[in-house]
Write a structure and sequence with these properties.
By secondary structure, the protein is an alpha/beta fold. It has a domain at 80-98 and 106-291: Rossmann fold, CATH 3.40.50.720. It has helices at residues 23-33, 35-52, 85-93, 121-133, 187-192, 194-199, 210-226, 262-282, 306-315, 335-347, 364-374, 399-405, 413-441, and strands at 5-8, 13-16, 112-116, 136-141, 160-164, 177-180, 229-235, 286-291, 294-295, 320-323, 329-331, 333-334, 354-356, 361-363, 381-384. The strands form five sheets. Strands 5-4-3-6-7-8-13 form a seven-stranded parallel sheet, sandwiched between helices. The protein has a two-stranded antiparallel sheet with strand order 1-2. Strands 9-12 form a two-stranded parallel ribbon. The termini are far apart. It is found in: Golgi apparatus, Golgi stack membrane.
Amino acid sequence: MRPETTIQNDDAHVMINPKRFSIRDSMRYMFQEQRLLFLLVGIAIAALVSNVVVVFPSRSPPLQYSEPITGGGSFHVAELTSVPRRIAYELHSGHVNTGVRIPLGLKPKSLRVLVTGGSGFVGSHLVDRLMARGDSVIVVDNFFTGRKENILHHLRNPRFELIRHDVVEPLLLEVDQIYHLACPASPVHYKYNPVKTIISFKAFFFTDHKTNVVGTLNMLGLAKRINARFLLTSTSEVYGDPLEHPQVETYWGNVNPIGVRSCYDEGKRVAETLTMDYHRGLNIEVRIARIFNTYGPRMCLDDGRVVSNFVAQALRKEPMTVYGDGKQTRSFQYVSDLVEGLMRLMEGEHVGPFNLGNPGEFTMLELAKVVQDTIDPNAKIEFRPNTEDDPHKRKPDITRAKELLGWQPMVPLHEGLPMMVSDFRQRIFSHHREGGNTISSV
């Protein structure tokens, strides 16, 4: 006969008969007498399972894509049906889960980024780059100069949000970075509403001044509340009609404070002042970029800027309008180069300001010749009286950007212009076709 087994603890002797020893007794013993050991074993098992088990993607119906959008012609909207949110994110971001676990410390941080004016010419190209990088992007735009078509291809992406809002009104969001691009930038637009132009950069004036002053104040206030890094897109117009050539960041400029362009020139100068005051006084992380003439796809067709004017006029078989004697000089950078510079500035450790432009210098007549060579050698040139306060020379010194940001433009004019011409040709003639169809249907 087998003797009874004695299990002893500090309080009493517990007699357990092996024949009557049950699973219930075992569990009670583990939970009551060996709780710490049981807890450690459980943690070890959970850790082992989480590191070994590979999560296979669920079987879902095949992806279905919508038809290309007609009219715009330059983009498609991908519509995913019956796709879980996680898989949709992987498809949009270009990263597919292969089942390999990445250590937590090595995973790149996905940022939440606000882009004001994100449906505009430069803003939409910046949004494309940020989305391609895997960030979550919020676009805020009132569509005064921006176009929904520029960002339509992102609308079904779960990492993209679009808010129709004027930055002269306060806005509450939670983001890591703020790219402040919202402001009419072309002469046609900022002269149309000069008071709103300058306010978009001061709090309580009338309407174009508002964007430069009030809009910048609101975005700086948001950056202060949520501790976000703030980037101001200023302009080479802060140099006015420069007496120093090429222009370096330390040059204070030569601006007419009461001229027709002053709403934009002085508005941006005030915006830079506000940005630096928030940086010095409130320790806000800021960056300042001074953007020189930029061209590329998605520019407004008739915004008064010289490149878009020449290209649109040549495509329409109209004379290219040259103001003055055509000997004024400008420097033209392709939009992808500018976006690269903005992102390097935002991610770097230097406040600025930094000149972002192409130091290649062209007279207006030389630019007209490049457009003729690209579109129509027989395109005519028409001379008109020069506009008020038109700068005679404009060329950036980008030494500082080269040394501190490792940035310089890569796309020369003869390579970038054909890509812009292709975009303009498609938009101009698609508009003509739409107009003809409308007339025939009526």
